[in-house]
Amino acid sequence: MTHALPLPDFTHERVEVITGRRSGLFIAAALHSSVLGPALGGARMWTYPHWSDALGDALRLSAAMTLKNAAAGLDAGGGKAVIGLTEGTVVDADRRRAAFLDLGDAVESLGGRYRTAEDVGSTTDDMLVVSERTAHVVGLPDRVGGSGEPAGPTSLGVYASLIATLERAVGTTDVAGRRVTIAGLGQVGSRLALQLAAEGAVLTVTDVNPAKRELAADLGAGWVDPAEAHLTAADIFVPAGIGGVLTDEVIDALDARAVCGPANNPLAHRAGADRLAARGILYAPDFVVNAGGVIYLDLAAKQRDRTEIMARVEGIGDVLRRIFAEAEDRAVTPLAAAESLAAERLATGAAALV
Question: Quick check: is 68 catalytic?
């Protein structure tokens, strides 16, 4: 799922690591922070070289969720769950159901301080299984009155972020004729590609799944090998797949004016933000850009009006504009400015607990 990424400092409130008693699978539920409220973050099922890699992913992603939820202005902390598979693991329908029942038990053990949801490798139907073991789950299927799949709101927030980034990097919000490279055509990347193509962007796309070339052809987009996507001249490079893609080597060769995409943890190292800035490449912090889904899930669970929810999602673009302005005023990277925004909210929340 990711390139080799460094572990965050261990500041987590609690991490539940189990071997599922039904499935026999590795499961980690990582609660990083509940300072702003019960944590919210998805549960992913993915294949890892070793169980420790799955645990590392849970630790990194839960810490990132704390930043994401804080910067988004949500009264929610950060958490994440991972069901880790090893190469060759067979997960049929029965074992899959068992795994998500086991996940439900792990979430329940955290006493309501962590709410889970669908993520990479999991679905809203999987969350319905989780709900058999715990009430601390959001994003259940529409057919049972849940809020459903959050990919649409996520892509809306990414689009709003891309417009704000384009405005800052190029001086216009007009997508027509602008060169955009999208690396990853999953649910969010595909939605974004469809919208940008409809507005006249000049698209180059790629995905590790070669079957996605059919979508590229339908959109009239260029196709490149995933390893060469960053070499394509673009106004905006959109990492929409694996984490850690922006290594030093990729950044040094990146032919783009800005980076803005939904991939979690796209920087292989935090110092990559400085490396991008040194090359004059604007970086939109991922945990701001991809917050649309979690905003939707959190506010829908709190029964907020849909119009209000979608306005909050679209407002991500304005949050990003403030971050860009703050970064320029303070002569820091947008990543540092975004982290400061999150830290201020967390400090306020911590003070309220004293």
Answer: no
